[in-house]
Design brief:
alpha/beta, six-stranded mixed sheet, 13% strand
Length: 565
């Protein structure tokens, strides 16, 4: 059975893609009857500028139609997924955009592309069109070992940019072709994949990886790589990619380079930016001079998870051309130039810091910290359970966030333990929680602790149990006021408020408070959430206890045990 995808019919993928692309992009048009995307007539080049045509199989989006526009391409020819376009389609593209200055074909080094683009070029020459072909072969994994030659990979996009800028500036056809060939002598690409992709209409991926495996040195058509290995950290991936490309092209200390980090399709920007930073750090360690750099999905393999690195040697001319502006759908509009004198970190604004107390450590604070440490240990132990529960009805971050706060509490033990009294301790802990714990839970717990601190500071000589019960009630009231939740909304308040009510009846009966919180948390399973992240899944949350309320009940039960109630 075919893998599920958002499409109408596998056989209509290319036509539907072109229709959607052109309909939603003002500067693009299509050649009637052909799978060819061109500039809309009002944005066409003047006849004295060289036209650029490229293309290949689909499935590499945004390449290549996403690079049609001012400063880059004039036409892109789209073949079926991972299949070269026909000779006639390429010929139609050439004829649609040919200028008096000629046409440059940019072709990736695959047999089908070379044959079909090559024959179309011969047909165009017979018709009197001046034409040149630049073949991109930048695969560092294969190097020069394969008889078929290096595969054409992501350096293709840099050639689009380089040639496009040169054409806009008025360079001749011969000059642009020579510029690109010279540039490609110093360009290479290496990739890594964490999984395979699935061609529309296919029932399974093109290859399978065991858990924790990756493919190194793969192409762009869903095929397996040249080597299989274990998944390693982003830094280790960056080092291996950089080593492979630097060694392949003989790049050395002081060489000026452009670095392109490319998502293979399913790699989220979060991961891509981590890898991008690690790549730049690896290049800096090798004392390469990175003048330009981008990270984005440039040349993909459908939904393949993974990334590739392209490096290319620069000179003054190629650096200036690559940095020139382009107006296309897919190429980043922001500047990629890395200035040597730029400021990448600015000073943080002053913020209140927890200060160490003076004098001997208070026994009350020591006991309070021991109980807080017990809560932290319980939250760290419960992280998998709370994360799994939150993943069912939310975004899965509650257990992780609370465990992060617990670790921060342990790390700040000496500082917190030196504070003069319980009010200062809770204020300091509130600040740590606010700073370290993300999501909704961090601010809410911080509010709870801060309000408790304020209550304790003004509680006078009341009995200890009453002071703590009143402080807890003040904290919960502050959460309800700021967060807007009430009992019955299926939030942490459904465990907090019953505990407050139990302590109001008997401030010393922590066992009753813990039991009330547990009952309140369990009761949320029957509720349809109206606030919080669980409310987004509606009825699907019914039957699952609220994770925030569950975490509250867990902590009150730990306190009960610590106090021997």
């Amino acid at each position: 059975m075919p893998v599920e995808k958002i499409l109408n019919a596998p056989g209509d993928v290319i036509e539907d893609y072109i229709a959607g692309l052109v309909r939603g992009t003002g500067h693009l048009a299509r050649v009637e009857g052909w799978p060819v995307v061109v500039r809309e007539p009002a944005t066409r080049k003047s006849p004295d500028r060289v036209a650029l045509v490229t293309g290949g199989g689909s499935g590499h989006e945004p390449a290549h139609a996403g690079y049609v526009g001012e400063g880059m391409l004039d036409a892109a020819v789209l073949g079926p997924v991972f299949t070269s376009p026909s000779v006639d389609a390429v010929h139609a593209a050439i004829r649609a955009v040919a200028t008096d200055a000629g046409v440059l074909l940019i072709v990736k080094n695959y047999t089908g592309d070379r044959l079909n683009f090559g024959l179309a070029a011969e047909m165009a020459r017979v018709e009197g069109i001046a034409i040149e072909i630049v073949v991109v072969a930048d695969d560092a994994a294969l190097g020069d070992r394969s008889r078929a030659g290096r595969r054409g990979l992501t350096a293709t996009v840099l050639v689009h940019k380089l040639a496009g800028a040169a054409a806009e500036a008025g360079a001749s056809l011969a000059e642009i072709a020579e510029l690109c060939r010279r540039f490609l002598l110093g360009a290479a690409t290496m990739g890594v994949a964490l999984g395979a992709c699935v061609v529309p209409g296919a029932a399974e991926p093109s290859f399978a990886l065991a858990p924790g495996e990756v493919e190194w040195g793969l192409g762009i058509h869903g095929e397996a790589g040249s080597e299989r290995g274990a998944l390693v950290t982003s830094r280790e991936i960056a080092d291996r990619l950089v080593d492979a490309v630097v060694r392949d092209r003989g790049l050395g200390e002081g060489d000026r380079v452009v670095a392109l980090v490319n998502s293979l399709g399913a790699t989220p920007d979060l991961e891509l930016r981590i890898l991008h930073g690690d790549v730049l750090a690896a290049l800096e360690r090798r004392r390469l001079d990175v003048r330009l750099t981008w990270a984005a999905p440039f040349l993909t393999s459908l939904e393949m998870p993974g990334a590739s690195l392209t490096l290319a040697r620069l000179d003054d001319e190629t650096a200036a051309l690559l940095a020139s502006p382009a107006r296309t759908l897919a190429f980043p509009a922001w500047s990629a130039e890395l200035r040597a004198a730029r400021t990448s970190v600015v000073p943080a604004p002053h913020r209140f810091e927890v200060g160490a107390g003076e004098g001997p450590r208070s026994d009350d604070v020591a006991r309070l910290h021991a109980r807080a440490a017990a809560l932290a240990a319980a939250l760290e132990a419960a992280e998998p359970e709370l994360t799994a529960l939150d993943r069912t009805v939310g975004d899965g971050d509650l257990g992780i966030n609370l465990a992060r706060g617990a670790a921060a509490l342990r790390a700040a033990g000496d500082l917190l333990g030196s504070l003069p009294d319980a009010s200062a301790y809770l204020a300091g802990l509130s600040q740590i929680v606010r700073h370290e714990v993300g999501g909704t839970s961090g601010p809410l717990y911080s509010i709870l602790l801060l309000a408790m601190s304020e209550s304790l500071a003004g509680s006078g000589a009341s009995p200890a149990a009453r002071r703590w019960a009143d402080a807890f009630a003040a904290g919960v009231e502050r959460i309800r006021t700021i967060g807007g939740a009430a009992p019955g909304d299926s939030t942490m308040v459904d465990a907090l408020q019953p505990a407050v009510d139990a302590l109001a009846a008997d401030p010393a009966d922590l066992a009753a408070a813990a039991a009330a919180a547990d009952a309140g948390a369990r009761a949320t399973a029957a509720l349809r959430p109206s606030l919080g992240r669980s409310s987004y899944v509606g009825e699907r949350a019914v039957g699952v206890p609220d994770p925030g309320a569950t975490a509250v009940a867990l902590q009150l039960e730990v306190l009960r045990r610590e106090l021997g109630c």
